[in-house]
Amino acid sequence: MTEPSRDQSAPLDTRARLRIFGVRGLPEIEPGADLAGLILAAGGEHGFQDGDVLVVAQKAVSKAEGRLVDLRTIEPSPFAHTIAEAHQRDPRHIEVILGESRRIVRMDRGVLICETRHGFICANAGVDLSNVPGDFNACLLPIDPDASAAGLRRALQEQAGASVAVIISDTFGRPWREGVVNVAIGVSGLEPLETYIGKLDPYGYELHTTVIAPADELASATELVMGKLCQVPAAIVRGFAYQPAAGSALALVRAPGMDLFR
Amino acid sequence: MTEPSRDQSAPLDTRARLRIFGVRGLPEIEPGADLAGLILAAGGEHGFQDGDVLVVAQKAVSKAEGRLVDLRTIEPSPFAHTIAEAHQRDPRHIEVILGESRRIVRMDRGVLICETRHGFICANAGVDLSNVPGDFNACLLPIDPDASAAGLRRALQEQAGASVAVIISDTFGRPWREGVVNVAIGVSGLEPLETYIGKLDPYGYELHTTVIAPADELASATELVMGKLCQVPAAIVRGFAYQPAAGSALALVRAPGMDLFR
After folding, report:
1. pLDDT at A44
2. Longest dimension (CA), chain B
């Protein structure tokens, strides 16, 4: 079972107030870019403090890591052609999606819900055509988003001397509910889950099932200042009390045997 | 199609900074309590400003509305007994859950995923035994959470002269991901969805599918200061730019015909 990630002994004051700053003014992110350096340069007015949580949109990370594919170089398989025809999609886009998937969860009405190589379940295996430079470019998820987060965390420590946690976020749809929300696909520096199992409520009732996902809630909170047109690809959360830990977004992936909706 | 809820013409500054205050020091909420008055009294130091979003935990609302059931008064049906035996549950709790449900979505490993009378899909139809006074009390969702939100919004306008939006939140699990997150089950004063469909990204690519659910993200953001032990049942979000609108959390419920996971 995951250990609590928030410092339960912290006075209530430290939890009851949160500030979220968007990091504005980042330039177009080129493959190979020093993303931590660019964020530090752009986020200057707020700087970083120990204990901050930096949330970075997946697309900025993927661009810096060169996870772009020119669709004109893609030779779709017969299966990709079949799917594309059935769902009025670009067969080259489908081919890239299949290459990023280890399982198709649902395929209906033009929507492909895929399990990515990491284990995340999302539309199109996270392969996106929007907010990408060039007419034919598709953007893939980072190969290892936890490693991306850890790299940013290390770089911020080295370049700014600040001990922060880092979350890589992406917008995912949900069954049963309209609209996408930002969730964590990479985590470094905090536990993404916090358990209340075994804790007593104020009436003495022992909680049996409550595990919260603060990493996803932190990602969602920052979407409110990011927007989807990529003006603000990073944000800083200040005032969230947590105990530093290695962390991994894979803790957010429900094991197949425990999942009622595969 | 839902209209954008954020003011797209607002200068970026107003979106790029958010503050979240927990409303602490609320007393035990009794049936019939003036919840708006209690929140105003407790949230005094921050007050309310026009444009704030108040998020209130469902349990506080349900208590004020008297949505508590003494399980000792419940006579379980034969079906409730059968389910309870198969899943090692209290048959009276099961009976109350069934009474709040219009459909069972999944029933496995002691977990009941139900569609509530409102259309929300969540564990136990939202019927909870934790954070409730008395040994035998179960807490139900509000009968009409949108109306609960609208009532609080009106009361805050009358008692404090502030035009705020109100969200009633509850923690819901998600398929495929571990941990629950706070989502909106009642909304008044803003559109819960924001569409980017038809908008152009900075590269001129037209977005075809992106609809965000800021009401859920606002609910998630405030969970970070609320905690699950009910110390902080309400929080104020300041700095989120939105266009006032009637709003309804039912816009967040995906129509059955559009849902791939029913």
Report:
1. 65
2. 63
A225/B221 Cβ within 8 A: no
Beta bridge partners of B112: B107
Determine, for residues B15 and A22 on separate chains, whether the beta-carbon distance falls below 8 Å. yes
Position A3, amino acid: E
Minimum distance, in Å, between the CA of residue B222 and any CA atom of chain A: 8
Mean pLDDT of all residues in B221-239:
88
Residue tagged 């989807």 (tokens) = A228
Using an 8 Å CB-CB cutoff, list chain B residues near A22: 12, 15-17
Could you give phi then psi for residue A148, rounded to 5 degrees? Answer: -60, -45
CA–CA separation, B130 and B150 (whole Å):
26
The complex scores an ipTM of 0.92
Torsion of CA B251, B256, B258, B261, to 10 degrees: 110
Which residue's entry shows tokens 């198969």? Answer: B86
Which residue is associated with the tokens 């700087």?
A: A47
CA-to-CA distance for A70 and A32, rounded, in angstroms?
17
Average pLDDT over residues A178-205: 91
B132 to A205: CB separation less than 8 angstroms, yes or no: yes
The pTM assigned to this predicted structure is: 0.93
Q: Is the Cβ pair B192, A179 closer than 8 Å?
A: yes
Structure tokens of A80? 């990709």
Do residues A48 and A234 make contact, with C-beta atoms less than 8 angstroms apart? no
- Give the helix ranges, DSSP H, for A137-183: 145-160
Q: Does the pLDDT of residue A206 top 90, yes or no?
A: no
Q: What are the helix (H) ranges across A194-243? A: 214-226
Asked whether the predicted pLDDT for residue A41 surpasses 70, the reply is yes
Residue partners of B204: CB distance under 8 A and separation at least 6: none
What's the rounded Cα separation, in Å, for the pair B51 and A179?
22
Phi-psi region of B20 (alpha: psi -120 to 50; beta: other; left: phi over 0): beta
Note the CATH architecture for domain B12-62+143-255: 2-Layer Sandwich (3.30)
CATH code: domain B68-138 is 3.90.1660.10
Q: A12-65+142-255 falls under which CATH superfamily?
A: CofE-like (3.30.1330.100)
Per residue, the 3-state secondary structure of B2-31, as one string, reads CCCCCCCCCCHHHCCEEEEEEECCCCCCCC
Average pLDDT value for chain B = 89
> If we measure between CA atoms, which residue out of A57, A39, A248 comes closest to residue A159?
A39
Cβ count within 10 A of residue A85: 11
For residues A22 and B90, what is the distance between their CA atoms, to the nearest angstrom? 47
Q: Search chain B and give the residue with CA nearest A239.
A: B225
Write down the pLDDT at residue B252: 97
Hey, where are the domains in chain B?
A: 12-62+143-255, 68-138
What value does the mean pLDDT take over residues A113-136? Answer: 90
CA B30 to chain centre: 20
